[in-house]
Amino acid sequence: MAQIILSSDVYKSTELMRSDGGTYSCQPSNDNIGPVPTLFSHHGIFLHEPNSYLFYLKAIKKAKDLSPCSRALLKYYQFLEDEKLDWNYFPPIKRLKPTYQFRSYLLKSIKLGELAHSTANAYMNHVKNFYLWTIHERYLKVQNEQEAPFKLEFIQIQNQGMLAHIRPTFTVQTSDLRINVPKDNYSKNIRPLSPLSRDSIELLITFLPKVSEELRLQLLLSLDSGLRIEEVSTLTLDALKTATAISESQHRFELTLCPKNTGVQTKYGKRRRIEISIYLLEALRVYQISERRLNRLDKLYYKINQLTDGKLSLHHDLIAVLERCQRHEPLFISQQGNPMTRESIESRWIELRALIQQQDRDFKHRFHDLRATYATYRLSDLLNAKLGTIESLELLMGWMGHKDESTTWKYLRYLQRKEVFKMKFGILDTIMHEALGVDNE
């Protein structure tokens, strides 16, 4: 089965060097673009076309995160291997082309509950873009329409942004390979929001004493600051050092999240400021110097030292993570001395959710819903404070790190339909008191 291996640093420029023994080798010179995911067949053969495409995305297009694309191509090439299909053979009959067979395979996976509609559509879109690139670079030669891997289409999309009155629709390029994603009939959101109600939040808080100290703080970080699970797992001491008080508030601070400067792995590698309550910030600082955490830190640095001395042989992915930890000390570390991962947090959340469901069967929230809870309550609070709608959305968009304003607007549309969220954000501050055991003065 095809597999992905994350390479070591890749350089755009190299030099041909001759050794004293007369042999030649290619040595890197400059333009280091960092690790690049590399696809190999089940026989260990380097897959030239998809790897050239990934290199193009990283080196030319300056892509920050190749994970979604590499996962899609891995899924596609695994399918090709299983079905014994060639990536570049397209017979005239549509249903026999590998791209359409892959689409049918994804649809079956959706029907079996193995894959979400949005994930399948994303896979298909990455495969489409891969073929467009191969055609442009002449890796794939198409003589006529019957030999094409798919049919391009152009559709009109309704503009939901702030400038919709100027440009009500815009045209996007797609293909007949796209997989339709079910939408919320009212809001037209691809993934309907599911923020926790006040009762669900209070129920969650009652279970926090039963979980580890790390998970308790991780849940509160997402609930109080809207952090994504990847950002929670990679939060660093450097990020905590950037805490500055918000002049308009006595109880809120801001932190800087940035992969380069503070080591926090944000989506798209974007730098942003997030807000955090003074109570949670102090709790994180206390945990930072706790004996429990320092014992775990010793184990982590033991592994880093072994890696530096060449005594430890690890997978490229873990080596890159340990090197990042050496530059930016992580706040959360596992009991075994490994950097915390999103997978480990997700596993602990699933266990906690199962425990809560013994008391409330309807508690089916994802970890990501904690982020939606923060955003919904915070926007409601800003609007109730008589701040303008545009100003409120701009603030929230910055704190949440949304790339597209339409993502932030869905919270406003949600609030317009849900009376329950007209309560103030101060409720979360009150609950934060209870969760952290802060004494009321």
Topology of this structure?
Blueprint lengths: L2 E4 L3 E9 L5 E11 L2 E4 L7 H12 L7 H17 L14 H14 L5 H20 L15 E7 L10 E7 L22 H10 L5 H13 L3 H5 L3 H5 L2 E2 L6 E6 L14 E6 H11 L2 H18 L7 H12 L14 H16 L10 H17 L4 H12 L4 H13 L8 H11 L5
Antiparallel strand pairs: 1-4, 2-3, 5-6, 7-8, 8-9
Helix pairs in contact: 2-4, 3-4, 5-16, 6-13, 6-16, 10-11, 13-14, 13-15, 14-15
Can you walk through the features of this model?
The chain is of the alpha+beta class and 441 residues long. The chain folds into 2 domains: 3-17 and 24-151, no CATH class; 198-289 and 340-436, Intergrase catalytic core (hpI Integrase, Chain A, Orthogonal Bundle), CATH 1.10.443.10. It is 47% helix and 13% strand. It has 16 helices and 9 strands. The protein has helices spanning 48-59, 67-83, 98-111, 117-136, 198-207, 213-225, 229-233, 237-241, 278-288, 291-308, 316-327, 342-357, 368-384, 389-400, 405-417, 426-436; strands at residues 3-6, 10-18, 24-34, 37-40, 152-158, 169-175, 244-245, 252-257, 272-277. The strands form 4 sheets. A 3-stranded antiparallel sheet has the order 7-8-9. Helix 6 packs parallel to helix 13, helix 6 (213-225) runs antiparallel to helix 16 (426-436) and helix 10 packs across helix 11. It is globular. The N and C termini lie far apart (62 Å). 26% of the residues are buried.
Structural class: alpha+beta
Arithmetic mean pLDDT: 85
How many runs of DSSP E, i.e. beta strands?
A: 9
Main sheet strand line-up: 7-8-9
Q: Per DSSP, what share of the residues sits in E-state strands of 2 or more residues?
A: 5-15%
Classified in CATH, the superfamily of the largest domain is Intergrase catalytic core
Shape: globular
Sheet of most strands: 3 strands, antiparallel
Going by CATH, the architecture of the largest domain would be Orthogonal Bundle
Order of helices and strands: EEEEHHHHEEHHHHEEEHHHHHHHH
CATH C-level class of the largest domain is Mainly Alpha
Query: What's the total helix number?
Result: 16
Q: What percentage of residues falls in helices of 4 or more residues?
A: 40-55%
C-alpha Rg (nearest Å): 25 Å
